[in-house]
Design brief:
Blueprint lengths: L1 E5 H8 L26 H5 L5 E6 L24 H10 L6 E6 L13 E4 L7 E4 L6 E4 L11 E10 L8 E7 L6 E7 L4 E6 L7 E8 L10 E8 L6 E9 L6 E2 L4 E4 L11 E3 L14 E10 L16 E3 L5 E3 L3 E6 L26
Parallel strand pairs: 1-2, 2-20, 3-20
Antiparallel strand pairs: 3-4, 5-17, 5-19, 6-16, 6-18, 7-12, 7-17, 8-9, 8-16, 9-10, 10-11, 12-13, 13-14, 13-15
């Protein structure tokens, strides 16, 4: 569930002006007004799945540095309306994980820093728990907006693997159907602990690539880690390049080993099958299914900071063979600060900047 609001609305909510009573103390605003907004009222009464608020505004919603004499101290280097609003929501009685996503203008771009967790649900972070022996998966159908186009894509997931050196390869993300001729790509952990990417050019002949080293410093069923692969189908030098990564926060990435450079330009094979989380072949058999908890995914057009084109939260995906996996943890609310200096009304639907790093549903 997603909702886009203006900074003025967030400011009013932060001051309690949309609640039943105006609360003059900015430090202790009412959240009643937020509960009346269309699309959010039901969620706040009974939060169950992922939700997001994209707050757009100008420089008064984005301010790096120290406190500027206002009523609030700086929080993580940022202090104005969107931060105040997020802090107030987190301080309310809702039992959900609340995250604040702050853009990275300090570095001269419209990318986002790692989310700041302001509150964690009593049940913990939301994840889908997958047993590797099951045929369960989460899927999303293809549309004209989410097909693989272009020369570069990034695939990543935040996972806690039951084992980081599985007896057989385990797929985390894929576009790999249950019949030959419907295979495109899959990403996961190979049986030697290396990251693994498989792809075809004709839907049937699989080519496997691996990170040059295995993941190290991890503990089975304990370590939570982001893993990813940056696939340059065309590296500009008559070849293709795969760079495998790990990360602790899904924002700052460390190359795993060295880049894998191969001859030949590739074109992503287009299947009619849905995208899948946790397996390939649509759960058609054990042996390639991921075992463990999967918290979040990133599927981006372009490099590791490109725009996402599929939902990041697993409870926004559709279950298939759902009887053998669990959704664990509490619901999550992402509050996204999409304010930037000089923004005007004509930029609320800016086709160049606003959609780039995230929308409310696709952070």
């Amino acid at each position: 569930m997603e909702l886009r609001m203006t900074q003025a609305t967030a400011s009013a909510l932060s001051n309690g002006m949309l609640g039943r009573t105006l609360v003059p103390d900015i430090g202790k605003p009412r959240i009643d007004g937020l509960k009346t907004l269309p699309g959010l009222s039901q969620w706040f009464r009974n939060p169950e799945d992922a939700a997001a608020l994209l707050v757009v505004g100008d420089s008064t919603g984005w301010s790096p540095g120290t406190a500027d004499g206002g009523p609030l101290p700086a929080v993580g280097g940022y202090l104005r309306w969107v931060d105040q609003f997020a802090t107030n929501v987190a301080a309310s009685s809702i039992d959900a994980t609340v995250r604040l996503n702050v853009n990275d203008f300090a570095n001269g771009n419209f990318r986002y820093q790692a989310p700041r967790v302001l509150k964690t649900a009593t049940a913990g972070l939301r994840a889908v728990r997958l047993p590797s022996s099951s045929q369960s998966t989460l899927t999303l159908p293809k549309t004209n907006n989410n097909k693989l186009t272009g020369t570069r894509h990034f695939f990543a997931a935040k996972v806690k693997a039951t084992t980081w050196v599985p007896a057989s390869p385990q797929t985390i993300l894929s576009d790999w159907g249950n019949i030959s001729g419907e295979w495109s790509w899959s990403f996961g952990i190979f049986s030697d602990g290396k990251l693994w990417f498989s792809y075809t050019q004709n839907g049937a002949t699989a080519i496997n690539r691996y990170s040059t080293v295995a993941i190290s410093g991890v503990t089975n069923a304990s370590t939570v880690l982001w893993v990813g692969v940056d696939v340059q189908w065309n590296n500009g030098a008559s070849g293709n390049t795969l760079t495998f990564y790990t990360s602790t926060n899904g924002h700052t990435w460390t190359i795993l080993g060295t880049a894998v450079v191969n001859a030949g330009v590739l074109i992503p094979f287009q299947t009619t099958q849905p995208y899948q989380i946790g397996c390939r072949t649509l759960g058609g058999g054990a042996g390639s299914n991921f075992g463990g908890d999967l918290y979040e995914v990133q599927m981006r057009k372009g490099d590791i900071y490109g725009p996402t084109f599929l939902p990041t939260q697993p409870d926004e995906w559709d279950p298939l063979n759902a009887g053998t996996f669990l959704m664990v943890g509490g619901p999550q609310l992402d509050i996204v600060n999409a304010s930037w200096p000089g923004m005007g009304l004509n930029q609320f639907d800016d086709a160049t900047n606003l959609p780039l790093p995230m929308t409310a549903k696709y952070p």
